[in-house]
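Re: the 349-residue chain
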Amino acid sequence: MRSKSNPQHTGGGKNVTIKEVAQRAGVSISTVSRVLNRSKPVSDGLKKRILQAVEETGYMPNAVARSMIQKKTGVIGVIIPEIFNPYFSGLVQGIEHVAKEHQSYIMLAVSEKKPRRESELLRIFQARQMDGVILAAARVERSLKEALDRLSVPYVVIGQRLAEKAAPCVYLNNRRAAFEVTSHLLDCGYQNLGIISGPLWDLASGRERLEGFQEALKKRGQPLRAEWVVERQGFHLQDGYEGMKSILQAPQRPDAVFCACDRMAAGALQYLKESGIPVPKGMALAGFDDEELASIVNPRLTTIRHSPFEMGFKAATLLVNQLEDPSIAGGDITIPHQLVVRESTSLDS
């Protein structure tokens, strides 16, 4: 027999009615409805009591009926390029934090960096009646822009700026950040600089970071040597490893290399160690993103720090604001960054 201190759970909620929830909480049915539908504010104490009654009874609101009344499903569609990259894990955590605060849920999909796949996912999200969409795209091609234009729900783009201001974007100033880390290498006295870049079809992490590197060299009057510029098609350890291997095949090697991300820098570092080239005395290295491994490898990496969590948080906040008030257009947001100097570029270490 259950004690009175342990409230009876009525089961899976299949036959539980909203009337039973109201009776257990000691409130009216309309008050329960206000809390579950978020139609009108109630006190925190009352809200807590009603939600506890919902949990104890196992009551499951009719989501379909509620969405028809509210014209909302309470679900946000999120599209990311890949799942194993820690950057996107942090980004999703930021989105989830905001969604949870607004009693919404996210439906996550992985595009594998394929614009056609992204367009298909947008159509699926539209058909499933998502309240809104957050898209982290590596590139925004014409087909994807057309798919975005066909969306009848609000959306926010992460990481890329749209040429046409169709929707708010949240992004990092990759060009400026790459300019700053390259300028740091030049300030340290390194004059012969190379770069291992990501794919240039990735406008933000690939092309813009290369452009920032080039701008810094041009400003200082330093030459850009083609044999020290290596484009890779990914942002992985192996890309950095193979990229450094390619650079070292040149007749003369640079005295510093900027890598488009920390994982590439770690791969480049491994190849330098295998080649007997010390870092930074034989060659300096700098990365981007300040992933956890940047402070674990030896020597620790000079890099650019920014917050994927904040990027996801800001994007979700923009979207939620539009959902709550469609008249809010929402402007673009630039996420701040910071140069973090460590031993991989310091000749004093």
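The first strand starts at residue 75 and ends at 80.
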